[in-house]
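Dig into what follows:

_____
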Amino acid sequence: MAKIAFQTYKKGIGGRVALLLLLFLVAVYEFYVAGFSGFAIVCAIPLMVLVVLGALQYGMLTFWLLMLVNYVIQWHSMPLPSGIPMSMYNEMLELILIALAILDAKEAKFERTANIMLYALIIWCAFCTLQVLNDTCGIGIDVAGWYTAARMMAFQLMYAFLVYILYITKPKILVQYLYVWGALALFAVFWTWKQKNIGFTHSESVWLQTIGRRTHILNGGTLTRYFSIYSDAANYGIGIASTAVAFVIFGITSKIKRHKYFYLITGFACMWGMFPSGTRTATFCLIAGFLAYIFLSKSFRIAIPFTVIFAFFVFILAFTTIGNGNQQIRRMRSAFNRNDASANQRTINQEAMKKYMKEAPWGIGMNIGYRNVPANNKYTFMATVPPDSEYVFIWIHTGIIGITIFIICTVIMLIGACWIVFFTLKSPSLRGIGAGLCCAFVSQQLGGYGNQILMQFPNCLIFYGGLSLVYALPWIEKEWIQYEAEQLAIQEEKKRLKLEKKKKSRV
């Protein structure tokens, strides 16, 4: 947003002061929950003041900083101060951006937020708020523990929705965002290549040989699953596969050549980057995302080639041995093996969980884990068994009631966004952007069914924020058509001058 003069704040403050106070109290409470000492908080105040003052002057710069921080926050080579939860960096920037929007309410375009995605998120956040009263395990109510879990499972979704829909308001900002996202994804792919061909940094090696050894060094040490700048290989593989879905769709629908080339290069690079992760679910995520586009494309000219290409891709993986000389491809191919030991173990765990969950329709409670459930407690197994899936995690902690509400809200949000793409948007290229974001969201949800990645960084902000962006597209379509016409005119003029120059050189 543009620079904000302090005189603006003196006029029409009304309820905005109360909202700002609430945001401030939330921020203070996060510091308290994080376990900061009073001395540490006092020492941090000058830095916080500088950050806030800078944000007041350069709102959009804060938004781009959030994009960068969100993408690299779990990079094992990123030196971060100890004792500060990773999520706080994101959340403080999000709260600052929301506060700035409230201060500059006339320019913030809050009317864009009144849509079906907001209402679905309110329902989910309200349910997670009620979970503070859940004491199924009989160990007492822990408000601080509940808040730690609720902000990761629910509130960050609302933050992502608000930040994207309030700050990506013009065609140029939309294009800039896609370029920033693409550049960060390309860096992640490059870092995968670097890990594979040059080696890991010291911090990455330490993590790989300790915490990550059991899941990332397989087949007697002959197969390494690469994780790039993400937290782990599953998070990376699924995140980069969903990114590939989005950018390939952006590329094939864009009319502006330089955008088209960048999107397609990014999309295919991300498809390559998926394989070194060794994440089998990522294969299905890629397929699901493109299958969703066959429906949203509204074009047989696009649907038929897509269907043929990806049917061929699935056939090669499922029914042939092509590429078996590569260990990563062999591991991806094992996703089609129904007798896979890893998949079978998950099924066994989930069958055992069902017996416990029959007596816990509200779940065992949020932030209930192995650290705070006694060994003799009835639900110790549920608190300690690996969920291996975001949907299973939500089911364990919020019960059949919670997972049902979450699925219904997710379906509502997705259908609302698809409706906009299918029926509301008229511009083919803007519809392509909306379709890419919807299909990437579908890809992520399938990934969340197979792995615990939905609420991880950077996926949550990118894909939930991306879905909220679809709801903003009808508001900018008129400007987009004008912007695209100007860019196409420039493109044609360059083409004309190039032809003239070529003709002159022949004379």
User: Anything to note?
Assistant: The longest helix spans residues 459-506.
